[in-house]
Amino acid sequence: MQQIRNILLICLLSLSVCAKAQQENPDTINRLADDFVTASLIVVSPGEVLYSTLGHAALRLQCPTFNLDYVFSYESENVRDKIWTFLKGQLKMGLFAIPIDTFIDSYRAEGRGIYEYKLNLSPQQKLWLWEVMDNHLLEGPNQPYDYFNKGCAKSVVLVMHEVLGNNAIQYAPWDDKYKNNTQRELVRNFITNAPWEEAFMYCLIGSKGDKPCANEKKLIVPTDLVEVWQKAKVNDQQFLEDNASVLLPLEKKEQKKWLTPLLVSIILLICVVICWLFNIKAIDYIVLAIQSALGLLMTYLIVFSSLPCTEWNWLIIPFNILPLICWHWRRYWLLPYSAINILWVVGMIISSLWFHVLVDESQIILALTVAIVFIKEWFHCKNYPLPFSLKKVGY
């Protein structure tokens, strides 16, 4: 916190000195010169952990006259160190002013690329942008971490609205991908090389991510923000320049993982079917353990957590704590609950094919697998012989 305030004081002091210098010697310093302050959008390539799979967006402000060069970046507390705090929805975030060299070095070890796109703003707008960022710095990192409503890309959009006004950005006609896809689908289509992060994201993002909203609110992915702003206009000129300056070249290329949640769920389904045929129960315990773990997670997120966008999630239907707490009375609810799960699977498949993707494919297959295990357990509780069994022995 003290470091942030020190940086803030340097920024404010330098700009105030600059203003005073102009008053005393207006021929020496022109604060309204186009190159007195330069503003640009910084985009960082995706990382390997969940909270970095979309990449990162920030704003860079420079004042060459006073040798000031900072990246104003919205950052959260370290999720790795505070995963439980994150799940509770109590993680904090705020705006940081980071010297450009420090910012670049922080991503160098990860092998991530950093790209800079110049913002075409008037001199007065750039000065106002710096002042707005200073004001946000004063607030400190005391805001609740809101990855859905105030992610890095959305935060940059909100800042530009604060500086320019709500209608100053003149957007070009929106591409069909923004018109036809939900916020969840735009994120999903971007992180195709991170299947495990994608599956976990579906646990965190509830049905709010599927609701219709303005196209601008769908700018969650930094590269989408670049694409849209390059087609937009401010001050009757292109808002964001096409050519990017490479501040740090990308070293690590994304590698598609072969062991994916979809493959794991298919293997589990095949194993459950084979075990059904041979009347073997060992694999059932693994499926029930996964269902219980996901049920505890979904119940906690929806009922107890303050994490944004977890008020409702379709996954709570097949993955909840009912089987865990009511296992003793399972002979009464296994069959109807399995029927509900199968109907849920059919509904999710229909929605994915003809409407919108609501859940991950692996979760659909896993829900079907759980339903089969429950049906198999119901036959056992009722002391009925298993249909299609190739081995007529008891458990």
Would you give an account of this structure?
The strands form two sheets. The chain has a seven-stranded antiparallel sheet. The N and C termini lie far apart (62 Å). It is elongated, with a radius of gyration of 26 Å. Helix 10 (261-277) runs parallel beside helix 14 (361-381) and helix 13 (330-354) packs antiparallel against helix 14. The chain has 14 helices and nine strands. The protein has two domains: 2-171 and 220-248, endopeptidase fold (from Nostoc punctiforme); 261-381, no CATH class. With 395 residues, it is of the alpha+beta class.
Shape from CA axes? elongated
Number of helices: 14
Would you tell me the overall average pLDDT? 86
What is the count of distinct domains? 2
Q: According to CATH, what is the class of the largest domain?
A: Alpha Beta
What structural category do the secondary elements indicate?
alpha+beta
Q: Percentage of helical residues?
A: 40-55%
Largest sheet: 7 strands, antiparallel
Over the alpha carbons, how many angstroms does the gyration radius reach? 26 Å
